[in-house]
Structure of Hypoxanthine phosphoribosyltransferase:
Amino acid sequence: MACGLQIKDEDSGYNKNLFCIPKHYEEDIERVFIPHGLILDRTERLARDIMQDMGSHHIVALCVLKGGYKFFADLLDHIKALNQNGDKSVPITVDFVRIKSYCNDSPTQKISIVGEELSALNGKNVLVVEDIIETGRTMKALLSKLKDKEPKMIRVVSLLIKMTNQSPGYRPDYIGFEIPDKFVVGYALDYNEYFRDLNHICILKEKAKEKYKI
Ligand code: IMP
């Protein structure tokens, strides 16, 4: 079974004043939870694991927007480097799907999936690239749509999975980090569209949640 780098409940992250945070978010951030450098180092290893398993056949990398775009770009850069420098290489094509399942820091009832023509998946090895899995509800909804397109194989990589009580036990094939049940932002993860433009994965102050609430 896949496992990620585990961050325990008692690991509260790092003092934000020791990192570069954009001025416009300085007041909003409580702690830096996963620094950008660590995200990239872990992503490099995920790329290697993925290529070892899937690297013998054309891969369609499917980015789950919006939250997955940073991880997707960095993961593909590492995969391209392996393709460039290894003994063998495979073509990678990309596709995008947009899903919205959160409002403020809570899940919404309705999961909307947009941009799902995805006609090129038939018979292909598909790698779904997601930012975070909490209950697994969003991923299960997406996977059931993707299976209709009859791909040869589907693998899921998620940068983060949250260890929550409500988790039905869905685990992706590749996991970056396993984190406690905290709401996190940054590295393209948002709170009502804010904080995607933050390099590190961070924990918000409660008053920031009020400030950006809709
Ligand atoms: P699930 O359906 O419960 O697995 O939730 C997954 C989706 O919820 C992700 O694709 C994110 O959009 C969103 N999400 C869950 N937790 C967080 C978080 O801590 N920060 C930002 N978005 C989150």
The chain has one domain: 21-211. The longest strand covers residues 92-103. The radius of gyration is 17 Å.
